């Protein structure tokens, strides 16, 4: 049995940021559990062609770990992955990480006021504090299409890309057309023989205007820190004050973004029928807004078809849609996103009285500022319920959470356990859901942002508000057990 003060599950942006926050607070007895063989989280797992971030690199990075060597304004997966590995090495995190250890269960022992953590591989750990940093986008979702087991060719999800499958000259079908598909479709379209995209609904797409950084820009970013900070602030402020109002349904901002989408669409797609298919029928921001400089261009290619008829079944070498059309397919790729609910699955986490987190959240996940929930003492979450964003960098949220959690851990110098009061958590979530009902996400009956009728994934305000509210902890909302 290994004993420690803090166990952190996951080594992506959140988990590593949490570990660095503990170091800054003078807490050295911690360990990180990682089911894979390297750090990086989603930037280790997603290696599909064209994988990149949809937030500019200067903002999608730690505020305390500036990187003047970003090659593009919007960096691709290899460089983000490399940034995370270098950050882990610089802050000496590798000596705290146990790789190849996937958490099976964690239970709170009320007698010792500590957590007993067990991994699938058999490791057992006793820790005063437990922090989950597994994120929301790590379990690929593959729809249960009728007849899928009959398909003879290679099939895989974009998050589990098969680099051993040669797509050159093949008839390739892509099911789904959201964030990941928007990035890999332009990469594979020129090499495949035929590309058929099965689209359930259109997405709002904005041009990125991406380009490489010039050498003098990289030099200035490295040698003049004020310039780098000012540039980061400008990116943040644009998202806070120009993009966020779109999510509140502001008519003027909605109109501006619709115009940008239509201008990009009309400039790149001349076929009127295809244009119709690519105009969404819901408010901008109700689903994730996508950014690309080559997506519509790829869809306009002669060897690419966009099919909006629903899939009826899968056959050995074809996809049959409800209109009876049989689309011949050699390779099937799912760009269908991730399973975000239930949160923290498949881990079995149990708090006071043996109550499982799954049971605790049977009406939908909720938490106090997304970081802690009643009946689960000394347990914290990074990127938990209602902390996802539709307008800015999630790394900003993660840093605010890491500071909050490290302060909670610092306060508990004795043997007690800190737990949020049920009434405080309920009051916070009543306010949050009231505000969320006014956001554009509620204009849709179903999306990955929602669990049933409630928005469980997204934060209702700006990052500035979240940082401000997380900076001062209201200790009256907690009790010590």
From TrEMBL:
Pfam family, one: FMO-like
Keywords recorded for this protein, A-Z: FAD, Flavoprotein, Oxidoreductase
Signal sequence bounds: none
GO MF annotations, alphabetized: flavin adenine dinucleotide binding; N,N-dimethylaniline monooxygenase activity; NADP binding
Top-level taxon in the UniProt lineage: Bacteria
Full protein name: Cation diffusion facilitator CzcD-associated flavoprotein CzcO
Organism whose genome encodes this protein: Litorivivens lipolytica
Lineage: Bacteria, Pseudomonadati, Pseudomonadota, Gammaproteobacteria, Litorivivens
């Amino acid at each position: 049995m290994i004993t420690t003060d803090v166990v952190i599950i996951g080594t992506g942006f959140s988990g590593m940021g949490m570990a660095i926050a503990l170091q800054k607070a003078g807490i050295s007895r911690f360990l990180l559990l990682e089911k894979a063989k390297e750090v990086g989280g989603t930037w280790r797992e997603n290696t599909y062609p064209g994988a990149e971030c949809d937030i500019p690199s200067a903002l999608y990075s730690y505020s305390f770990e500036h990187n003047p060597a970003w090659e593009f304004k919007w960096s691709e997966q290899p460089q983000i992955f490399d940034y995370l590995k270098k950050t882990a090495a610089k802050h000496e995190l590798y000596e705290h990480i146990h790789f190849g250890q996937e958490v099976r269960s964690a239970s709170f022992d009320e007698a010792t006021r500590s957590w007993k953590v067990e991994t699938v591989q058999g490791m057992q750990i006793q820790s005063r504090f437990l922090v989950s940093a597994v994120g929301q986008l790590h379990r690929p979702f593959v729809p249960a299409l009728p007849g899928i087991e009959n398909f003879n060719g290679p099939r895989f999800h974009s998050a589990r890309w098969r680099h051993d499958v040669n797509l050159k000259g093949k008839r390739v079908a892509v099911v789904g057309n959201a964030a990941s598909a928007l990035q890999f479709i332009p990469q594979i379209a020129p090499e495949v023989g035929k590309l058929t995209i099965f689209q359930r609904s259109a997405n709002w797409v904005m041009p990125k205007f991406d380009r490489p950084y010039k050498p003098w820009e990289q030099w200035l970013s490295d040698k003049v820190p004020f310039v780098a900070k000012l540039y980061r602030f400008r990116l943040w402020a644009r998202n806070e004050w120009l993009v966020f109002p779109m999510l509140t349904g502001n008519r003027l901002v909605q109109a501006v973004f619709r115009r940008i989408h239509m201008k990009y669409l009309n400039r790149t797609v001349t076929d009127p029928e295809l244009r119709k298919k690519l105009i969404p029928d819901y408010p901008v921001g109700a689903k994730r807004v996508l950014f690309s400089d080559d997506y519509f261009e790829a869809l306009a290619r002669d060897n690419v078809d966009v099919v909006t008829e629903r899939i009826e079944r899968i056959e050995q070498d074809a996809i049959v849609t409800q209109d009876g059309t049989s689309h011949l397919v050699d390779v099937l790729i799912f760009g269908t996103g991730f399973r975000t609910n239930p949160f923290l699955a498949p881990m079995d986490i149990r708090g006071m009285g043996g109550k499982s987190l799954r049971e605790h959240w049977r009406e939908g996940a909720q938490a106090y500022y997304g970081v802690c929930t009643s009946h689960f003492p000394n347990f914290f979450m990074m990127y938990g319920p209602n902390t996802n964003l539709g307008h800015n960098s999630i790394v900003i949220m993660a840093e605010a959470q890491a500071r909050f959690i490290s302060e909670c851990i610092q306060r508990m110098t004795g043997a007690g356990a800190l737990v949020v009061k049920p009434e405080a958590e309920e009051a916070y979530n009543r306010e949050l859901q009231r505000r969320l009902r006014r956001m554009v996400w509620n204009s849709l009956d179903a999306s990955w942002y929602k669990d049933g009728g409630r928005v469980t994934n997204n934060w209702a305000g700006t990052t500035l508000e979240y940082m401000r509210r997380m900076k001062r902890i209201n200790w009256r909302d907690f009790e010590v057990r």
